[in-house]
Amino acid sequence: MLHKLRIPQGDEPGLLALVGLTPAATAELLSALKAAPLSIRPRELAAAVAPNLLQISAEDTQQIISTLTSLYTAVNAVHLSTGEFASIVADAIASDPRESLRVGSDDLRQFEESLPTLLETDAIAVAAKAFSLWLEHDKTFCSARITTDLRPIFGASAKERPLAAGVVYTLRLGYHSEGELRNFYVTLDATDLDALQHTLERAREKGQSLARYLADSRIAHVDSFE
Fold first, then answer.
1. What domain range includes position 97?
2. How far is CA 23 from CA 59, 82, 94, in A?
3. What is the pLDDT of residues 64-109, one digit of tens each?
């Protein structure tokens, strides 16, 4: 069981913005999160709630949403209640020697009381869980590129002009695996390109069909994990 936590330096801005929220601003944020459309991208979730936040700047909103999704992932990993986890985070802030994390006791108490409610919103849960599920795959797509080459075909003598030429395509797939960016290359011809395009179009049609089913079932639809 987790008993002690060290605050990563990258999470300082979001945590300080959270700790600095007044009760009214916290209530405003909670209301906006409950009304927000579900998204797995923290930046899109922040953009959706920002117009409804009169007491929190857009910059702070981005940092707060990013920090909340990170905290949700952490609490989900250590199998603690949100209340228990909030106490551990508050203790970590209070005991941290860094001057940048010096906050008032009243603000810290308000943060500890409000954090569980914010973490338990569906918007934060979906944003944190969906991306984590995507990253659980051994290989995740990064990029793709197809290069096109002309390959000459010579006769008996290489000194003579080519008798023909073939068009060759090379597909490069970039993917993430074990924390590294790797590439996989496949040679294709025109027939292969047609087959690949057909496969992609069929996959898109299946996705659209499933999206309609989810919409009819009133289940939130996530179609991109970027």
1. 9-135
2. 19, 19, 20
3. 999 999 899 888 888 889 999 999 999 988 888 888 888 888 999 9
